[in-house]
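Researcher: If convenient, please comment on what follows.
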Amino acid sequence: MIEHAYQHCKSIIDTHSKTFSKAFSMLPRQQKKAVWAVYAFCRRVDDIVDEGDAPREELDAFERDFHSFLREGELPSNDLMWVALDDVFSEFEMDSTPFQEMIDGQRMDLTSHWVGSKDELLNYCYHVASTVGLMLLPILAPGRERKLRDGAIALGKGMQLTNILRDIGEDLERERIYIPKVMMDDFDYTYQDLQGHVINEPFISLWETLAQDAEGYYTEALETIHEYPLYSRTPVQGAAYLYRAILPSIRKNQYQVFYERNFVSDEAKKEIMKQMT
């Protein structure tokens, strides 16, 4: 039953994030399976908000299930994700706080459709992405969570900023704008420009400012990479490098983030991973 549950989680990460799947495929089997389960949890929350028929009610129900999972030690349902996650919590010294913070972060997407300031953006990035790194630390670096906390938070912020810079067009279709309004005003790039999918000098300057922030967070995160155990060092480094490579791919594509989804080719991914082994 448990192995079946883990395979279910593996199918989710393989389908929705080839980058994460590729990066963490090098972990020892127990750690790798735990990553699959944590990813499945995060994906479930994300899908409820993005694709749910009644996302507010569904997210509230999911949160109640999570609290039941923690409080009673019994699975809230026969959902295979909970089966796998229960095994993870029994095998590792997991911290429930970032799981709750992830739910709180996804709830932000139910009420806010335009980020006002950069501080607001970074708070959002922490809740929906840095929390993932904090969830994974007990799996990837048991006993070193406090030492690696700041680096994990930085890596999450870098990755989420990368997601935002890649998905500007998709997010706009969902009526979500993560480019801070204050920054758009500063760069003289208007809402009408955004709606018109205008790629001009103000847009590029704005995009590059956030991209440089993201690259700074990657640099900060990688400064602590030597603190990870050998078995997880390369996978974490690989995840950072593979995600960071999305930014130059967008530049190469002339900043086209409205009509195309930019990605790192399989060949480029293999080359990045090869350089680290």
